[in-house]
Automatic annotation (TrEMBL):
InterPro entries: Alkaline_phosphatase_core_sf, GAG_Ulvan_Degrading_Sulfatases, Sulfatase_N
Classification via CDD domains: sulfatase_like
One Pfam family from the record: Sulfatase
Descriptive protein name: Sulfatase
Source organism: Vecturithrix granuli
Record domain Sulfatase N-terminal: where: 482-784
Length: 907
């Protein structure tokens, strides 16, 4: 070992590479012993340096490669929505219209060493001025050329994307149009007033190198809903059902994968046909990669198995396509008595199975996630690497392939790792001059038959680089169970709170509370509207995982809420809420012994104010504190005072010199709606008036919060209690051209107050990044509870991670955004959002310096670090949700529907 460590010291330069350079041949017995000894020494080295945490780089490559784009179809049955960014109408049966003068599409490339040919199939709308629709095409803001579609028929246009214009991963192709036309201006009987530019049918991307695959060889396509067959379904399918998926047209396509193609495959299909309206037989013709391979006739009584042969000469390495052509489709209601189903269906599929008929041909078998990389290709991922780490590779190089790994850093010489041929487990340790961001490339060279199967690409690092280690010492006893209060003020933005630097004295009681508590100055909601944020607080999960994000979504029953967890740990749990979105209808009463939602609709405020809640909460506390041998208390309160319409109580409506501003009627129920619709256009003075009305409501809520704390002190519940004061989200006041919330992920809507009084957390100001997901694990840590499943947050009793990244999401009114925040930058990905009042489309990507609190200076993607954060964001978006809670929707009763409609949650 001493000899090995000396070798490490000798080899350290700017980059020191230490380990197994040049593995011996497998049939060399002495070489094998040397190899095993070297690996053992490296393992000792890893253990001595505490490299106990693993970064799974293969998963990053794998997820990226699954998104590789070869063709985008703009038909409604091809579900193009996930690729459409700005400037599109809803997909139609055969095409999707570009609307406005710019339209953007997201696509993915991972081999960026070669130019890509892009073929576009589209036609323009007619111009009332007989203009030519000269369409400029830009990829990642680089012009690649123009084309001119006509309005009479669909045409194909081909352009070349230079390799230097491509990013490894997510790319944006943008179309800029000469003109738009309203259909109502050219068709007398049309009422369509949309500004349309061109109708798109297809965009395909072709490279000379189509050499990387990130799918396992397909053995079975399971068409049950719970098996998520969407990965394999192309055109012609209904949404999967409980035990089947219906083909809905005369032609339906699926994809499957083979690596490399075996000699032959047997195809087994389990399906049943819908009866024919004309009593004909459902004869199904099957094509493999556009080649007919046979037919079978499906019965209409029950599911049966049908078998065909897939000849090797028609199979491809990697992605293959099966097309089923059906003799007929039937309207369901015409062939099934009493049915009201208007769908046109043909055959219901339950399974498609692929069996290798050549037992000796085992190359196509895979074990877990793998990446198959053919010769002359390069794929990249970006990763932050620490000063000291070990790289472990598990791979098979086949048919003479020569694999290698390259590490690239800005302005530095590349690190090249030549890998031994054939199957290997290869490990090498690195000591770098400093931690940095690296582009990691997997490269395979060889002839046309060569390929590498990558099974593992892992970086072993010290736990100190993860930031998730627990504090070494604790100043509390886990068995103690303090009373717990979680107090949420709806729509309270952090920068309107005094202890967060606001100049007005809006929150004297909250400020006094903060002086004896831990105040977190960089706290974020995970979403910018109530229901999604509420689900995050009570579940410890991000919206991606709790799946309670849209207006009708209900918290899944299988989620173990914070109230349920505390009840299991001996707490008495009670909730008080004035917000219908945080109510029993949407599943939020789970785990509460008592849950009181205040439903009386107030004629002016539209919701119950916090003083009314206090009239129930304060007597409860006074009584509960006297209960002999009482259980510890979990109390959750949700107030609505600052939510629009801004209708402060009479006792505060003259505060903050409101008379100095031009008045506007904020007591109008439709006040914000009228502004968003352009009916009202407030002056700058009226905007200040609106903000002052909001501040008055904040002041009123602060007063009732102070009364609650005074009660807790008087009955002896305050001193040892855990108290969290927070908000579900903020509120915009024209910071970025709009008003309200649930519309953006800028700081005005997602930065929140987050103040904790707990004996386990010393009072003071904390600048670390925190989020609502941290509430659940922090409370669990204090009471000694166990996570019911992996939570997304971390306990705030742990040592903070200085490199932590937070993720934010939004899916509200078809407005889909995702963002990441780290101590240096914030990146926002705007998918389908057009900011009201702003003529130019919002950029697809916005990058802000973390210290640019107002987020007015979009920096763009400029550095390798930016690219890494960019990849990190999309890795989060594309990573599979392994919790798989069953998505449910609520039946909303009329009185709640009316309240939510008045508050702007239902249109």
């Amino acid at each position: 070992m001493k000899h090995y460590m000396a070798l490490v010291l000798i080899c350290i330069g700017m980059f020191a590479l230490v380990g197994c350079n040049g593995q011996p041949e497998k049939n060399d017995e002495q070489g094998n012993r040397q190899e095993n000894n070297a690996l053992a020494e490296i393992s000792d080295f890893v253990e001595q340096h505490g490299l106990t945490e693993n970064i799974d780089l293969l998963e990053t490559f794998y997820i990226h490669q699954q998104k590789e784009t070869s063709i985008l179809r703009f038909r409604i049955d091809a579900n193009p929505d996930s690729y459409l960014l700005h400037g599109w109408t809803m997909p139609e049966s055969r095409f999707t219209w570009a609307v406005g003068d710019r339209s953007r599409v997201l696509f993915y490339r991972y081999d960026i060493e070669h130019d890509v040919e892009v073929e576009i199939t589209c036609r323009s709308i007619a111009s009332i001025e007989n203009l030519s629709q000269i369409t400029g095409v830009f990829v990642n803001d680089n012009s690649i050329g123009t084309f001119t579609p006509n309005h009479e028929n669909f045409q194909h246009f081909t352009l070349t994307i230079p390799a230097q214009a491509l990013r490894s991963g997510e790319n944006i192709i943008e179309f800029r149009f000469t003109y738009t036309t309203k259909p109502s201006d050219i068709h007398p009987n049309s009422a369509d007033s949309r500004h349309l530019a061109a109708a798109f049918q297809k965009i395909s991307f072709q490279s000379k190198q189509q050499n990387v695959y990130a799918h396992e060889a397909t053995q079975t396509i399971d068409f049950r809903q719970e098996a998520h067959p969407e990965t394999f379904l192309l055109s012609g399918w209904q949404a999967p059902e409980k035990d089947r998926t219906w083909a809905m047209s005369r032609n339906s396509q699926v994809r499957f994968y083979t690596y490399p193609p075996p000699k032959n495959l047997s195809l087994k299909v389990v399906c049943v046909a819908i009866p024919s309206e004309t009593h004909e037989k459902q004869i199904v013709r099957v094509h493999l990669n556009n080649t007919p391979i046979g037919t079978f006739t499906v019965n209409t009584n029950d599911f049966k198995e049908y078998t065909l042969k897939l000849p090797a000469q028609f199979l491809r390495f990697g992605e293959n396509f099966l097309e089923f052509a059906f003799a007929y489709t039937s309207k369901v209601y015409r062939v099934i008595p009493d049915s009201k189903d208007n769908r046109n269906l043909s055959v219901a599929f339950r399974q498609i199975m692929f069996k290798n008929n050549s037992p000796t041909d085992t190359d196509n078998l895979t074990d877990g996630k793998v990446i198959i990389q053919r010769a002359d290709s390069t794929i990249s991922a970006i990763q932050s690497l620490p000063h000291l780490f070990e790289l472990e590779l598990d791979y098979v190089s086949m048919k003479g392939a020569a694999p290698r790994v390259r590490l690239l850093r800005d302005q530095q010489e590349a690190i090249e790792i030549e890998l031994p041929p054939n199957e290997q487990t290869y490990r090498q340790s690195f000591q770098l001059d400093q931690p940095a961001m690296y582009k990691i490339q997997l490269i395979t060279e060889g002839d046309s038959e060569s390929y590498t199967r990558w099974k593992r690409v892992t970086a072993h690092v010290s736990s100190q680089n993860t930031g998730f280690q627990k504090a070494e010492t604790r100043s509390f006893v886990r068995s103690s169970k303090p009373d717990i209060l979680v107090y949420v003020v709806d729509t309270l933005r952090a920068d309107h709170v005094g202890c967060y630097g606001y100049e007005r004295n809006t929150t004297p009681n909250i400020d006094r509370f903060a002086q004896e508590s831990a105040i977190f100055t960089n706290a974020y909601a995970a979403d910018s509207w109530t229901k999604a944020s509420a689900a995050t607080i009570v579940s410890g999960l991000l919206p991606k995982h709790h799946e309670t994000v849209t207006k009708k979504d209900k918290l899944p029953d299988r989620i173990v809420t914070l109230a349920e967890m505390l009840k299991e740990n001996g707490y008495y749990t009670i909730g008080f809420t004035a917000n219908g979105n945080f109510g029993n209808v949407f599943g939020f009463s789970q785990g509460f012994d008592e849950f009181r939602r205040f439903v009386d609709r107030q004629p002016v405020t539209l919701s119950i104010m916090s003083d009314v809640l206090n009239k129930s909460i304060i007597p409860f506390l006074q009584e509960y504190a006297t209960v002999k041998d009482r259980k510890p208390l979990f109390l959750m309160i949700w107030t609505m005072d600052p939510h629009d319409p801004y209708t402060p109580d009479e006792s505060v409506k003259n505060l903050f010199d409101i008379d100095q501003y031009e008045p506007i009627n904020t007591y109008d129920e439709k006040f914000l709606w009228k502004i968003q619709a352009g009916i009202l256009q407030p002056t700058s003075s009226q905007i200040e008036y609106i903000k002052t009305r909001y501040d008055q409501e904040v002041y009123f809520n602060d007063r009732t919060f102070g009364e609650l704390l005074d009660t807790m002190k008087s009955v002896g519940l305050y001193d040892n209690a855990f108290i969290l004061f927070t908000a579900d989200h903020g509120e915009e006041f024209w910071d970025h051209g709009g008003v309200g919330h649930g519309r953006t992920l800028y700081n005005d809507q997602v930065k929140i107050p987050f103040i904790i009084k707990a004996t386990q957390i010393p009072a003071g100001s904390y600048s670390r990044l925190v989020q609502h997901i941290d509430v659940y694990p922090t409370i669990l840590d204090i009471i000694g509870g166990e996570e019911p499943y992996p939570l997304d947050g971390i306990s705030l009793l742990h040592t903070p991670n200085p490199e932590r990244t937070l993720f934010l999401e939004e899916d509200f009114d078809s407005n889909v955004l995702t963002a990441s925040v780290n101590p240096e930058k914030k990146i926002i990905f705007n998918r389908q959002f057009h900011r009201p009042g702003v003529a130019e489309p919002v950029p697809a990507f916005e990058v802000f310096n973390f210290n640019d609190i107002d987020e007015q200076n979009n920096l763009g993607l400029n550095t390798l670090n930016d690219e890494f954060r960019f990849h990190e964001l999309f890795f989060f978006i594309n990573k599979e949700n392994t919790l798989n809670f069953e998505h449910t929707e609520a039946e909303i009763p009329p009185e709640l529907d009316e309240q939510l409609r008045d508050l702007g949650y239902v249109k």
